[in-house]
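By way of example, we now present a protein record of this kind:
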Amino acid sequence: MRKFLLFFAIFVALTIVGAGVGLVGVYFWAASDLPGFKNLTEYKPPVVSTVYTHDGKVLGNLFAEKRFLATLGEMPAYLPKAFLAAEDSSFYQHEGVDPMAIFRAFLRNMQHGGAKQGGSTITQQLVKRLLLTPERSLKRKIKEAILAYRLERYLTKDEILTIYLNQIYLGSRAYGVEAASRTYFGVHVGQLTLAQAAVLAGLPPAPSRYSPLKDFEAAKSRQRYVLGRLLEMNWITQDEHDKALKEQLVFKSMDEQTWGVGAYYLEEVRRWLVDHYGEDMVYTGGLKVVTGCDLTHQEAAEKALKNALVASSKRRGWKGTIDTLTPDKWAEFLAQDVNPALLKNGQWVKALVTEASAKGLVVKYGKNTGLIDAKFLGWTRGKGPKPGEVVWVSLAPVDPKAKAAAEAKAIADAKKPASGKAAPAPAPKVGDDLILQQEPDVQGAITSLDPKNGAVLACVGGFSFEKSQFNRATQALRQCGSAFKPIVYSAAMDEGMTPATVVMDSPFVYEDPVTHKIWKPENYEGGFQGPMSLRAALAKSRNLVTIRVAQQIGIQKVIARAKAMGIESELGPYLPISLGAGAVHLINLCQAYTSFANGGVQVKPRFVLSVTGPDGQELFKSEPEYHEAMSPQTAFIMDAMLKEVVRAGTAGKAMVIGRPLAGKTGTSNDEQDAWFVGFTPYLLTGVYLGFDQVQPMGKGETGGTAALPAFIEYRLAVENMYPVEDFPQPPGIVWSAVDGVSMPFKEGQEKSAFAGIIGGQGNVNFSDPDAPLATGEDLLKQMY
């Protein structure tokens, strides 16, 4: 017996030693290539970079993974408890691995004949997500356990739980509880109710399967499980449990502007950030970026540009339908659900033309019927859509008188006795009148900024960012036509000319001495008006006067002034430059005009005002960049002359704004580009329209016809944000009458304008070496 016991004891000892050696061997086998985990002590996951407007509204988010960091202190106490109840109720008791949980999971899985429950702790889940591959193997599970145990030696329980709640994927592109709160409930994590927290805590095992946006019943079932576990752990009361179960769940995403309103602005900021910090930092670094954008300005600018582009397109007539459907396809098209509220919000919807007559078009969209009155179809020139064609429609403005008359008629008709005849098919109701729309082929841009500090308040680069990300405000180089003339006149004011200086508006001819080609610039309206003051010439945008002014002072001085005002593009030393033959960016032309609006000092446009890192450290702060371009007196005189453009010149339509306003229209050769830049002391706005592939927009598509309406619509929408303000008069200014209009002069110049008349009748020889002309084809560019 004693021998048996001795042998048994030796066997047990050897077994224990063998098991121990085996375990040690397994440990070293699994631990031989463990990844490092100490970097988790400085947890820096991919975090959303948020771009804000100047007043703290979200313009957009840039991210690789949609994640916003949140501390435990920012979460309601029941949120982490809900995750612990569902995933790891003994989290604060175990040391990274929970043997009892593993054993319970093993028994349950054996009972159900498959993997129904996991035994991994939250620490193990974190290690698996951040440090290991998703492979299913014994070695990976052992590594997971070893790393989980080690991790708990380096981090506190609260630190591990914080990382887990920020790292975990919860479906619908949301990483972490803050992003999930915004995505599913439209609130920040600190505003979650217990019922909402339980929904989020039920997601980790299968975020897609349990998503409340995809399967409400599955999500509700998981919520009941989580609330039951919280009650079982005595972490909530029975009353809290019952109230949470009864709470009605409403799912909505937080309203975020990303690539919606301000998409062109956001893209401009994104490109700037990538240039300065690189893509990794922008998409994962959690930057806080403050811009100059104002959403009221941005929305108004987008609407104004869209309307101007559509109006320009319609002036060229009907381009054709979106699609044509055979009768057997009508029902399928109309089966699509269309929300009429979209129209009330100013959006377009696709509609099917079902009837066409002299009275107009009857169209259907979804279950709705509308009428496009013939009075809205004149622009189609009799070539409008026919039954079976799919078109864009928007809501027509309601005429109050027509509405009242129609309502009165409807009441009268209702009182009439029945005639016994079949009632006619109901006509579309008043208020359902629609307008036929078409997507424009022409493009354009609007930029608006504060001329005192350069902050860009709005930037729109085209009709649709979704269809074209090319920003015509910052990336398109186009000839600005007469919008360049104020630069010429400002240089002339510093060379002794005044608003009263008289210059001939008469024909001249230049023959190239080498090619013998003839350049005969003309005025846009044709004809000549003879001697006229510079005040009148700028207001009426007379080309021949501008050419003579540029020749008189020397084209090099014009170019020098343009550079001083911030024009960055190449300007050759040729007279056609004075008529806007040089190509510019809209944003750069606006920069030049700040010299007029800001008392002679130009300011560089600023999109990004500041950049802050995720830890609150300031990475970048923008300060206004100023450059003196001209004297305050010259700027003030130019303001007065450009106010005349609005009062009595090519921008007369802008008088409707009813405030002191200066500006200049511009149109390039053959109506290829249309411009208007207008400004007050508090706001400067530039508008451009033109085809991406240079071609004429059509007769009459000038700055005053095509671009100015967008400026007016935008400014009328935002002017009430500012008090009325006129340009401040600097010292050294006196006033005198010019053409019966009071105009400013520099002291001593009011009676010393150039004697006689600059320029004469007939041919003119501009052979002065200080004012060289272009040669060959360059000279044949006729600008106006």
Notes: The chain has a mean pLDDT of 85. The first helix runs from residue 2 to 31.
